[in-house]
Amino acid sequence: MPFADIIGHDGPKRKIRTALGRQTIGHAYLFSGDEGIGKRLMAVRFAQALSCDTPPASSQPDSCGECRACRQVATGTYPDALMIQPEREKANPQIKIDQVREIERHMIYRPLFSSHKICIIDDADRLTTNAANAFLKTLEDPPDHSVFILVTSQPFRLLATVRSRCLTLKFSPATSMQFEGALALKRAVASDDAKFLAQISGNRIGVAFGMDTAQLRSQHDHFFQLCRDRPPANPTTILERAEDLSKTKRFPDVIEWLAHGLRDLLLVSIGAERDLLLHQKNVETLHHVAESVDPAHVVELAERLHALERAPRQNLNLQLALENFLLRFHQVIRRVA
Ligand SMILES: [Zn+2]
Q1: Which domains does the chain have, with CATH numbers?
Q2: What are the residues facing 117 on neighbouring strands?
Q3: CA 60 to ligand 1 center in whole angstroms
Q4: What does the pLDDT average to over 289-300?
Q5: What are 225-271's pLDDT values in tens digits?
Q6: How many percent of the chain have pLDDT more than 70?
Q7: Any idea what the Cα angle at residue 283 is, between residues 280 and 284, rounded to 5°?
Q8: Per residue in 40-91, pLDDT tens?
Q9: Distance of CA 207 from the midpoint of ligand 1 (Å)
Q10: How big, in percent rounded to 5, are the helix, strand and coil portions of the chain?
Q11: Residue 83, H or E segment
Q12: Contacts of 230 (CB under 8 A, 6+ apart)
């Protein structure tokens, strides 16, 4: 059943299904919560349940997920359900006034097939001021058959007058158990990998689905390669490593695996539980490194890393900044076998 494949979000799901069952559908909903946790999917499931040609006979309202209407809603081609989103490829993606005019044209006519005319606005906080004001007019006097679903991770960026006209449903990231269950079910991911993805994505299932576990693991292995670099006191090795990293790797990725590695090292050096670590597979190496490291120095490295992260914005020479960081890194972290 389509609603059943949404992991977690029991509160919003229950409210939507109750409204469907009692036929007390509101004119406007605001789905708010972190990026990549399933708000948009829920909006699609909601639209499918409103439009399905052959809904299953069940006490819990749902859609079949397979009829023409369900398939067209999912692909954004259903005549009674309009999908609006900003132009994501732009540097500053916006939902413009032309798109609001399109919404007006869509919503004004009675639905052709469904009982409702639906409009899902993804990243609704991206409405420009002009567009938001124009949209507010539609929202103030919505046609009877209309259902608006606004999806956003930044509700505070919406006009307060738009927000107040919507029924807000708050979405939270999945719990670790829900997350690992979902990954095991949908991607046949091993438990160790599921834990790894849960930590990296902050339990955001939508984000985790797009991640390549093997690639991420090999990226994060660079941290342990660094710890193994020999001889650590030899500046030439360090400079070559900095050159290699600054030229061949994406800088934000380098920052990320360094940050995760240092975090794990700090956790191990203060005796934290294994479950809290990202690199549970490398726990022995971490212990080995931690034995000869002062936690205060790891904190200092983390601070230096934070400064390094800002280097591109300050137009600093990345290779030079990385060299400085790695020189200190190898003073703090002595070679491990
Ligand atoms: Zn259907």
Answers
A1: 2-172 (3.40.50.300), 212-332 (1.20.272.10)
A2: 146
A3: 14
A4: 89
A5: 888 776 556 778 888 888 888 887 788 888 989 999 999 999 998 88
A6: 97
A7: 155
A8: 999 999 999 999 999 998 878 999 999 999 999 999 999 999 999 998 877 7
A9: 27
A10: 60, 10, 35
A11: strand 81-84
A12: 237, 335
Q: Which residues pair with 146 in a beta bridge?
A: 117
Expressed in angstroms and rounded, the spacing between residue 87 Cα and the centre of ligand 1 is 29
Q: Name the average pLDDT for the chain.
A: 88
CA of 193 to the centre of ligand 1 (A): 34
- List pLDDT tens digits, range 166-217: 999 999 988 877 887 777 777 677 777 888 888 888 888 888 878 888 888 8
Give the Å distance between the CA of 48 and the centre of ligand 1: 7
- For 279-291, the pLDDT digits (tens) are 888 888 899 888 8
The CA distances from residue 247 to 230, 252, 320, in Å, are 21, 13, 12
AA letter at 45: R
Ligand 1 centroid from CA 69, angstroms: 6
> Of 5-9, 149-153, 165-169, where does mean pLDDT reach its minimum?
5-9
CA of 139 to the centre of ligand 1 (A): 28
How many Å lie between the centroid of ligand 1 and the Cα of residue 51? 7
337: confidence class by pLDDT, cuts 50, 70, 90? very low
Identify the pLDDT of residue 213: 85
Residue 82 β-bridge partners: 119
Answer whether the bond into residue 295 is a cis peptide, omega within 30°. Answer: no
3-state SS, residue 210: coil
The alpha carbon of 73 and the centre of ligand 1 are apart by a number of angstroms equal to: 9
Output the CA 131–ligand 1 centroid distance in Å: 33
Centre of ligand 1 to C-alpha 50, Å, is 9
Cα(184) to ligand 1 centroid in Å equals: 26
Q: Would you give the DSSP letter of residue 150?
A: E
How far does the centroid of ligand 1 lie from the alpha carbon of residue 56, in Å? 8
User: How far, in Å, is the centroid of ligand 1 from the Cα of 71?
Assistant: 7
Q: How far lies 164's CA from each of 123, 124, 146, 216, in Å?
A: 17, 14, 17, 42
